[in-house]
Design a protein that fits this description.
Length: 79
């Protein structure tokens, strides 16, 4: 099954490592992680920049989504 992350982006549920609230990026270690991922070209911003509400970590990429963490978790649990 797939999880819709916003816009036209869908990823396989089995690839999801974590779904985190964007507020966790305020932590220094998270900011550093996102900076490195962005520098490596592994960060994909879905939707308008500045409207991010969650980030989704997969083995190959990190997605910034305009959909809330709780909504994504509910969608992921459905089947």
């Amino acid at each position: 099954m797939f999880l819709h992350l916003g816009a036209d982006v869908m990823i396989p549920k089995k690839d999801i490592v974590a779904i985190l609230d964007i507020q966790t990026r305020l932590a220094g270690i998270t900011r550093e992680y996102l900076r490195i991922i962005r520098g490596d070209g592994l960060l994909e911003v879905i939707g308008e920049p500045g409207k991010e509400r969650s980030f989704i970590i997969t083995p190959n990429k990190v997605y910034l989504s305009p959909i809330s963490c709780s909504t994504l978790k509910k969608r992921a649990a459905e089947d």
